[in-house]
Design a protein that fits this description.
With about 160 residues, the protein is an alpha+beta fold. It has four helices and twelve strands, in the order αβββββαβααββββββ.
Length: about 160
């Protein structure tokens, strides 16, 4: 199996879209990801994966904290912006956010979850981060940004 085969197959798995943020002495950082999930309820743990070359990964390691910002249906431009390799300062410039528990929380997100880094594992060309949730908030009526077939889709969930 070739990498493109796996990418094509996994593009048929609908995911949400999130921006993982952190900050350290070099400033704020952020990266778009759809590689995340809840992992455990006892103890509370979440899992996110970041590329080894990500400057956000380095900020998480330095600070010991990160935030998962679940993007809303109208935040595709943020998903694209944080998927680039520009500096964290450029990514966050002009993006409304606040610091909560020492991590950037993006305004308008469907939900956010601030975490302390529990530990990390190797995962091919990515690093798997396990985090212990310390604070969170969600917007009950917000619709999520979804990713399917290699494209973004505004959420259209029914309750």
């Amino acid at each position: 199996m070739e990498p493109q085969d796996l990418r094509s197959l996994m593009s048929r798995w609908v995911t949400g879209v999130a921006v993982v943020t952190s900050t350290d002495g070099t400033g704020p950082r952020g990266a778009t990801t759809n590689a995340l999930t809840s992992l455990s309820l006892d103890p509370l743990l979440v899992l996110v994966a970041l590329d080894h070359a990500s400057n956000t990964l380095q900020a998480v390691r330095n600070s010991g904290r990160f935030c998962i910002n679940v993007l809303a249906a109208d935040q595709e431009t943020l998903a694209r912006r944080f998927a680039t390799k520009v500096s964290g300062e450029e990514k966050l410039a002009g993006v409304p956010h606040q610091l909560v528990d020492g991590v950037p929380v993006l305004d308008g997100a469907v939900a956010w979850l601030a975490c302390e880094l529990d530990h990390e594992l190797g995962g091919g060309d990515h690093t798997i981060l396990l985090g212990r949730p310390i604070d969170a908030r969600l917007e009950e009526d917000a619709q999520p940004l979804l990713f399917y077939g290699g494209r973004f889709h505004p959420g259209a969930l029914r309750r």
